[in-house]
Amino acid sequence: MLTPLEIWSALEDVKDPEIPVVSVVEMGIVRMVAVEHGKVTVTMTPTFSGCPALHVMKSEIENRIRQMGVESVEVIVALAPRWTTDWITEAGRAKLKAFGLAPPPRVNGDANVFFVEAAACPFCGSSDTAIKNTFGPTLCRTIHYCNACRQPFEQFKPV
Ligand SMILES: [Zn+2]
Prior knowledge:
The protein has helices at 4-11, 54-66, 90-98; strands at 15-16, 19-23, 30-36, 39-44, 72-77, 101-102, 129-133, 141-146, 152-156. By secondary structure, it is an alpha/beta fold. The termini are far apart.
């Protein structure tokens, strides 16, 4: 019988469809893994409730577990508590940065306050940056411009 730990590590193979360098585990999307009487139950919380990637992630999580020979798999989508950028792991943050996405500042649940704060440029580390627009290619990102190295970059909107 598989252990929850083995399931967790297999789920590292499932990437966030919007940011293919980070896994659903690193994004903090997978909240809970339970193995009971041969049945695997995974609880996940999407980054945004209207996220079109939700169904993709849900079936990828399910398929990945079936690949391990588990026949009974249930993926539960939990919308409360709301996903927060604080759930992104340290490894996930490092990968977001390497991908050119500035990791969100830690907000400890109080999101909007930090929204307009200067983001550090993921390329040169300068904090001399400006917000270009509040909505990036997806609802979860903002576009910034670095005045130091003159490059645009995206930051995860802390939620
Ligand atoms: Zn820069």
